[in-house]
Design goal:
Helices cover 42% and strands 15% of the residues. By secondary structure, the chain is an alpha/beta fold. The N and C termini lie close together (12 Å). The site of 1,3-dihydroxyacetonephosphate has 15 residues, from β8.
Length: 258
Amino acid sequence: MKKKFYFGTNTKMYKTIQNTVDFILRLQELTSDISRDEIELFVIPSFTTQKDANQVKKPELMKVGAQNMGWEEEGQFTGEISPIMLQECGTDLVMIGHSERRHVLGESDEEENKKVLCALNHDFTTLLCVGETGEEKEYGISEEVIRIQLKKGLYGVTREQTEKLWIAYEPVWAIGVNGKPASKEYAEEIHRVMRETLIELFGETAGNRIPLLYGGSVNPGNAVGLSRMEHIDGLFIGRAAWDADNFNEIIRSVLEKR
Ligand code: 13P
């Protein structure tokens, strides 16, 4: 049997509580016949939706994640949400270092590292996002940037903890309405570098086990091609997945043709 393929969406600052609940219910209904040995499905909605989203999710069908997390259990961190608060909502997964957090909201690799350690220490599935800017790509330093983001972001993570670690490669220039999707060949090359770096950090077995997802303008036209690349284990989708029917169609087209 083929390796399990990962499909997820980050709904950014878009869906209300009701929109999120409707989306999750519809997505579960549409995909319930697909074996979860074949796919891992996850949805990452905003903080305010966490409790309701987790109440309507069927754990055997999907994981629900948070888009960010503070790195302490409590303290003087106005505006932050702690791991304890997310556990209280039933959240399964925490995304760390999304490009919009890094580049719009100014987070550093050092901060992402504190969050990654905190998320893993609280037993969350932890999705670290990495990706170079258009300028860094222009300078020809994409691979170096990715290696640095991985090495700094994962500093202090133990081999055992990698069982709950996922990585998403989301080139900044490929994300969102003004983004231009990475070609499957380019994405594959960066995924290969990520795999190499993870093996260097955690050894063959653990390094090979960590799922690597591609994100950045994934759409019905490029999803299948990307999914067929050797080092791409999943697709992390924004706009093209925010309608459950469209998301379901992408999932099925990938499963049919990969
Ligand atoms: P788009 O698919 O809309 O480019 O967004 C990708 C993304 O940021 C997922 O986290």
